[in-house]
Amino acid sequence: MITIDKLNSFGADTAEGLDRCFGNEALYLRLVNMISDEKSFDKLRTALDIKDLDEAFEAAHALKGVLGNLSLTPMYEKCAEITELLRARTQTDYTPMLKELFELKEELDRLCAE
């Protein structure tokens, strides 16, 4: 079960996230728990696998919004980096960045499951 303390140790800005949820901790934690099922992660990976930078940008941009609204700072920052490269349609190997993002997602998933 995810808690505010666990999110703080993860590096989330929980004060900001809670503020966006009007101080409703239960709502905030429920929304954080939903990240595990966010379809944009798979869309981003698939689009990058087939080198569809337009689709990858759309997925990364959507994901950046979700992560930013929940103030999941470590994930947001990595996703923002990917998004900006994709916005410029930068031809590069996104594998290391994607790996970091998915490792952060796995860490958050573990925290939510504990």
Taken from the alpha-carbon principal axes, the silhouette is elongated
Q: What order do the helices and strands follow?
A: HHHHHHH
First-residue to last-residue Cα separation:
5 Å
* Share of helix, binned: over 70%
Structural class estimated from helices and strands = mainly alpha
> How large is the count of helical segments?
7
| Number of distinct beta strands | 0
Output the radius of gyration. 14 Å
Largest sheet: none
Share of β-strand residues: under 5%
Q: Outline the low-pLDDT stretches.
A: none
Mean pLDDT equals 96
Please sum up the structure shown.
It contains seven helices and no strands.
Structural overview:
The chain is an all-alpha fold. Helices cover 74% and strands 0% of the residues. The longest helix has 19 residues, at 95-113.
Strands, helices and their partners?
Elements lengths: L3 H7 L3 H7 L4 H9 L6 H10 L3 H17 L3 H15 L7 H19 L1
Task: List the defining traits of the structure above.
mainly alpha, 0% strand, 114 residues
